[in-house]
Write a structure and sequence with these properties.
Elements: E1 2-5, H1 18-26, E2 39-44, H2 45-54, E3 73-80, E4 86-92, H3 109-122
Parallel strand pairs: 2-3
Antiparallel strand pairs: 1-2, 3-4
Length: about 120
Amino acid sequence: MQQELEGKGPFITELFDEDGEEIAKRGNEFGATTGRPRRCGWLDLVALKKAIFINSVDSLCMTKADVLDTFENISVCVAYDDNNLPIYKRFEGWQEDTSQCSSYDELPQKLKDYVKFIEETVNAK
């Protein structure tokens, strides 16, 4: 639903603002050994599509949707511009507690719409 990265390397959708801090805090994204916060950012569908193709993936597992429960808007990178900067599609946040949801049917419709968009974009379920 969002991305995290520990260590160095390119991370085009990395967030350097309060949204990135909130994702790290709500997702408990801190190194187990160092305690350093992990780098957090919006989901990059360009990179995900490439990884799916290279690895012949046909299904994905979604975790930590509840990390985004409080966000008013949620962005997803759908392309890069000529300067390799992310182009985002913005979704209205569901702003409901999903931490106790145990089935797809229990998810808010806005989260289902977000998941459907990801599935259709990367051609994986």
